[in-house]
Amino acid sequence: MMLSAPDPHLGYVTMQPSDFNNDPMAVRQAVFDFKAFAALVVMPNATALLQQAVDQANATYDPLGACQLVYVQPRDQDTYSNYILPQLNALETQITSEFGQMWTRMVMENTTIPRENLQQVPQALSPAIGFSQFNLRPFKPAV
């Protein structure tokens, strides 16, 4: 929450990887420790791995390895279900869509990438990136 605002509301801050010692697990720990409702994480080397996928026709490239959504649900189940997750999912969709359009245009304009490579790794063009979701403390107990 942006508590310093005149009307407290949900908001976000952008933080640098160095704030977490460049460790995605440290981001998870911060969310687990209730220092944030959720975090969207761009994984280390995500851009390099995507570029390598198209340059080298790496068919094992997985777009879901590029970004993560990390959250702790039991903080408030109703708030998460009704407000936070729908907004985060909409943001994920917007990011994926806008990045995909920009990335595909860039790749298609690059004449040094063999078109055969692109045929072998269509997932590196669309969606190119995705978000893996991790609920660190699910509200419902595991069965």
Q: Could you explain how this protein is built, in words?
A:
This protein has 143 residues and is an alpha+beta fold. The chain is 41% helix and 10% strand. The protein has four helices and three strands; from the N terminus they run H-E-H-E-H-H-E. The chain has a three-stranded mixed beta sheet, sandwiched between helices. The two termini are 33 Å apart.
How is the topology of this model organized?
Elements: H1 24-32, E1 38-42, H2 46-56, E2 67-71, H3 77-109, H4 115-120, E3 131-135
Parallel strand pairs: 2-3
Antiparallel strand pairs: 1-2
* Average residue pLDDT: 89
The biggest beta sheet reads: 3 strands, mixed
Measured as a percent range, the helix fraction is 40-55%
Approximate strand percentage: 5-15%
* Order of helix and strand elements from N to C terminus: HEHEHHE
Number of H/I helices:
4
Main β-sheet, spatial strand arrangement: 1-2-3
Principal-axes shape call: elongated
Q: Measured on Cα atoms, how large is the radius of gyration?
A: 18 Å
Report the span from N to C terminus. Answer: 33 Å
- Class per helix and strand makeup: alpha+beta
Low-confidence spans: none
The total of beta strands comes to 3
Structural key phrases:
143 residues, alpha+beta, 3-stranded mixed beta sheet, 4 helices
Q: How is this structure best summarized?
A:
With about 140 residues, the chain is an alpha+beta fold.
